[in-house]
Amino acid sequence: MMKKFFVAFIFCCFFTSIALAIDSGPVKVGVNIPVGITLDDGQWQPTVEGYVWTAVIFHEQANFIRIHFDNFNLAVGEYIEVTDPRNQKEIIYANKGLKELKNFWSGSIFSDTAIITYHANRQYDAKEGFTIIEYGAGTVDFLNVNESCTSTVTYENLRCKTRPSAVMANAEKIGHIVFVEGQYQYVCSGSLVSDGSHFLTNEHCMSGGQTTCNTYDVYFEYETTGTSCTSNSATKGSSFSCDQFVTKNACYDYALATLSGNPAGTYGYLEIDPNGVTTTSTNVYIIGHPAGYPKKLMGFGNSSNDVNAVNVDPIFPGSCSNNESDSEIEYEIMSQGGSSGSPVFNESTNKVVALHHAGWDCGNQFSEQGWGINMKKVYPEIESYLGGAPPSGDQLSVTVNITHTYIGDLRVVLTTPTSQTVVLHDNTGSSTDNIHTTYTITGWDGTYAGSWSLSVVDSARYDTGTLDSWSVAATPDGGSTHNASYTGSPIAIPDNNTGGITSTINMY
């Protein structure tokens, strides 16, 4: 008999409408429950091909479950299946798991029950296997939506009416995100913006950079199946994980990453207007996933949805204080948390002109006001990553020398004086020895004076190493090259330690 891990947990309501509230953050849709399941738990059964280990996680009232694996290290030919009881969704992991991270979150199972099946060559081996340290359980039933707050004027299911082909084409590129921050599961929206599957969302939907990116579960076909403009059943389609965090800016509330599996090859990508919005006569609409609902079209075809203002400084939740003009636009479109990261389109050109990031929460009796970061500010900062030319004259290179017997265990991140972060090495290379590499960085903001830091984390057991030396060569705007380096004693990198080490150098 399979061992079932039963957790009785009564959820509070996550979708309370509050008058005069701002939906300036992602929506909490689930909670993470520690369990500590090891291969000593569950049930082993011999098979013709070897052994099968099975465990079942059941969470009362849950509508989706995600599994958090740790120390994931399977032998060649072995694999894990995560399924629901009806086997309607099957997720398979092998080797060292998702992106060889060893510590990762699975995709979502849309059920109150997740079945974890380990197809092993032999019974428990201390050098191989995995543990389940926690699971995420959510109350939102993504497949049977019962909406609590809608608008018949500005807020409708995408496919409940005949829409222009350009609008429908744009909608294909927009994704629903489920991700983890701390002890909770959240939802946001985002969109594909390059043929390299670059994915654009709000910074507050990826505030942890690569750490948050690694928890992403993204769906592009999450839409209603019928013609109702309010409530309906839905399908989710295939999911995609986040591959590499690229860059973010809390001031302009954007984050850019790439997705695994090349979704842009299937859905295409949006066209961005580098000029954004310059006049209040611009008519706009939004496509996204408010409150984690199926894909919605917000504000389309309503002449009252002209931009009300092109403001100075982002309002929520940005931290700009430099009185920049044209940094935020304001419009009369209702939204909810979960819409964060949705693209805002010019209705005449169907190009992206802003990134939605705040609005009066659904149910507010006074206003349907929303705010978006103007693409005039965002595009220059991400252009170089999307295939455009790098910022003129700015050149940055980082040389890293690490002695280690398994570089697939390592994650190496550079932080600039202005807190720009760049992932130089991210658990790739498998059993290759040592890192002796010079990295060329694009998209650097040109600030060289101040403290630079390099963090190194070894996220797996057994193999160890040292940070021997590293250096930075910065040439801002074609001027003089500034150099700084660490050449002291080698720094031991703690084994299987998420804290890792950080080395700091100063440049003048």
TrEMBL record:
Coiled coil: none annotated. Residues 352-482 form the P/Homo B domain. Residues 1-21 form the signal peptide. Pfam families: P_proprotein, Trypsin_2. Keywords: Hydrolase, Protease, Signal. The keyword Signal applies. It comes from the Bacteria. PANTHER family: LYSYL ENDOPEPTIDASE. This is Proprotein convertase P-domain-containing protein.
